[in-house]
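Subject: design request, 135 residues
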């Protein structure tokens, strides 16, 4: 299997604006940002998505998110951030190497949250029962 785009960044085969790196994780600015400071936090062990990454790998990623997100937010003058892992193409995942987006958010920045759907309390209760039975 050929290396992913992000493995190529890790291996310095393609350039990126790297913010932080340790033995397990790399973080760099997204090339096509949704807001200033939009960053990606990526485990160095290549896996297709968060369901394929090891727990240890994800823990290291979360440690880096907690470490760098406040500085990213402060650096761009934001007031918060969204942490997103698009998982599988149906959810908009394009790069099939586990990554989390840190998207800085500003009061009234106009970025919209997901639209809501109708759901009755009965539908939610049925669904919860189905899921709980499978877990
Ligand atoms: P996703 O849709 O969750 O797979 O997100 C992949 C992200 O990778 C997108 O936000 C892209 O803008 C970003 N991206 C693609 N190529 C590069 C690159 N060479 N350097 C930095 N970010 C990239």
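Subject: RE: design request

Done. Sequence follows.
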């Amino acid at each position: 299997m050929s290396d992913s785009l992000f493995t190529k960044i890790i291996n310095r085969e393609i350039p990126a604006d790297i913010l932080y790196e340790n033995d397990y994780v790399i973080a760099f600015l997204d090339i096509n940002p949704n807001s200033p400071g939009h960053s990606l936090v990526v485990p160095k062990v290549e896996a297709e998505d968060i369901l394929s990454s090891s727990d240890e790998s994800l823990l290291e990623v979360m440690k880096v998110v907690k470490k760098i997100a406040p500085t990213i937010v402060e650096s761009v003058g934001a007031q918060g951030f969204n942490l997103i892992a698009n998982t599988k193409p149906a959810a908009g995942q394009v790069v099939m190497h586990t990554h989390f987006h840190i998207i800085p958010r500003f009061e009234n920045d106009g970025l919209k949250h997901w639209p809501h759907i109708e759901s009755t309390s009965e539908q939610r209760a049925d669904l919860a029962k189905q899921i709980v039975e499978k877990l």
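The pocket of adenosine monophosphate is lined by residues 5, 14, 16, 28, 30-32, 40, 86, 92-95 (CB under 6 Å).
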